[in-house]
Amino acid sequence: MPTRRTLLGLASLAVVLTAAGPSEEAPKPALAIRAPHPWRPPFGLDRVGRPTDVAVTAPGDGPFDLARFRDGREIGRDRVSPSIVPVDASAAEVALFDGGREVARLAIDRPALEADATAKADAIVNPVDLDAILPPSDWLLLGPGRSAVVEFAAFARDRDRPDARVATWFASSPDCRTEVPTPLERGRRATGRLELAAPATPADRDALHVALLGGDGSTLWEKSIPTMRGRTVAERPAFGAYETKLRYDAPISVRDPATGAFSSLDYEKGWRPELNDVVVRLPNGGRFVFWRGSSYIPFWAGRYNTGACYEWAEVMTRRPGAVDCVEPLMDKELRYGRVEIVESTAARVHVRWTYQSTDLHYQVWGDEAVEDYYFYPDGFGTRVVNLKTTPDTEYELCELIVLTPQSTFPLDVLPENLVDAIALDGTKREYRSPIRTEAEKPQAGEPPAVYRLRLNRREEMAAVCFNPGDRAFPPVVFGPFEDQGVQVTPWYWGSHWPLARGNATGSKIDERVSASPCHNSVMSWAGSRPEPIAESRRVILDADGKAREMVVRRWAWLIGMSDADDAGLLRRARSYARPASLTPKGARVGFEGWSAERRAYVLEAEAPTIEIAVNPEAPCVNPVFEIAGAPKSSPRVAIDGRERPAGSFAWDGRTLWLDATLDRAATIRVDFSR
């Protein structure tokens, strides 16, 4: 990747087009190469043989003629006006004509030969299922028994190479090569694809070599792609939580806050050895991850190697002496953050994350948060934030964030329509980048709304969140970053989280994009918090053991990973916001009744057979019942007299989850008598 100094040097070639004022001399006709910005499209193989952008400067609006030349002969001519004009990649020279008179000429110096290659596995597997997390996007992650699919492109400017061919091989097995003829015709782009089986080797690391060879066997171009060989992992249930150590083979990028000097740290040495990662597996393919590299801040890890996060409790009130923001992402060494699996059964998963917000230098102020995450087999669950803080401290609780791997440019992977907000009345706001002003924000509906956050352009499922107590749409929508006068990101971009250490919160792009995973913040509720579902103020012990007046609040969100359409998400949100009325027989309603925290109805069993008359105000989607005192044995379950087959419900001895949507009054029978 070009250095920043190189980019600035290239930028000096760009021509800024401005209209001449009344006292200014009219611009003279000129041509200049507009250097491409590496953060702008095209990306990947599309950069091979791409046109050359030429800035045309001239007095007036034209029109003018721009002629293209190769070998001293004209190969084409276009009518242009002063602007940035893409020029055929095969052209070696251009000239600007005003009428029949040549007024400017420019030689285009580009390499005689361009080539590039990419590699991916022959089948898409979520990296988490190979015990890996956010591998660099220009690496190859290859699971056991998988083959590598190599795609390549080449472009020759100087001459034909009819005998050229592309060869690929793994460093661990150099004699096992795959080759394919790739004749190159001057001025024409050549592309191809080939497949290479991975050699049998116990090594975790390898390198895939791709070379463009001449007819005499000489190497015209070569590339080495770092390769992670996925390990064979133990069979895991489709639904459940487990501890592991997720693999990340690149080093941790470290910046010294005192000097600004960069170094690296072996990933395996980044934390105390007793600390593990936690992964929640869901039957629909969703993977929810508590990763040491993200300071245990959880996120949905997608199949296509990006992530989606709902944020954390971040201090908004300025702390005296604080260096940079005060939030748990600053706890890179996990001095305070902890995660534990509280429950993992056939019916429910419960994971707890406890943390303190710190500044860049690990200072803390006694506040503490506990976030409980509950999940069910349908891919939906809840996020519950319990926050203990001083009465005068303001906190932010929710922000929609996308994580991207190392060497990933946001404009390459993020769709324009990254977020949808669907109000309960069915009206919809589509947040499309770029949004630079208040007037460009979508306007429709009233809060609360259910939010769909897309992970990337290719992912079919999206992260979902909904809070019935939301009183506003996100007041903060982050605008794009610009660099060298062009847009380079769709939203806010930061390299200080996840994984990287020592960097303060940034406000521009930087070269760490090629050294660490990064994040993209789309929108934030900032200080516009939803109504808490519980709140108290009293003298208690803070996180440091000091007795003082503290405020304890609790909030709950419906969350999930789903490919549901708008109507499906609205049914989920309405079901969560408007719990059904129950009339149980053989049980009584528990004191809590309905738990928004656990998305569950609370009952106490009084007989071995329980009938629950459900009267929903809104469709009741996949109801959950906590039945205290019920037998531990598996029950027979029926709805309106029709017995439910195995797999359409789950019971763990206390919690019953049903795969059913009740659109109208119905009776659920839970029979433990057999």
Q: How would you sum up this structure, described in words?
A:
- By secondary structure, the chain is mainly β.
- It folds into 4 domains: 4-107, Immunoglobulin-like; 113-229, Sandwich (Immunoglobulin-like); 235-577; 579-671, Immunoglobulin-like.
- Strands 24, 25, 26, 27, 30, 31, 32, 33, 39 and 40 form a 10-stranded antiparallel beta sheet that branches. Strands 16, 19, 20, 21, 22, 29, 34, 37 and 38 form a 9-stranded antiparallel beta sheet that branches. Strands 9-15-14-11-12 form a 5-stranded mixed beta sheet, with no helix packed on it.
- A hairpin with a 2-residue loop joins strand 6 (93-98) and strand 7 (101-107).
- The longest helix is centred in the C-terminal third of the chain and has 12 residues, at 566-577.
- The model is unreliable at 1-23 (pLDDT under 50).
Which percent band covers the strand fraction? 35-45%
Estimate percent helicity: under 10%
When the domains are counted, the total is 4
Mean pLDDT value: 94
| Overall body shape | globular
Q: Can you tell me the residue ranges where pLDDT is under 50 for at least 5 consecutive residues? A: 1-23
Tally of helical segments: 3
Record field, number of beta strands: 52
The gyration radius over C-alpha positions equals 29 Å
Structural class: mainly beta
* Termini Cα gap: 68 Å
Oligomer: single chain
Major sheet: size, sense and barrel closure? 10 strands, antiparallel
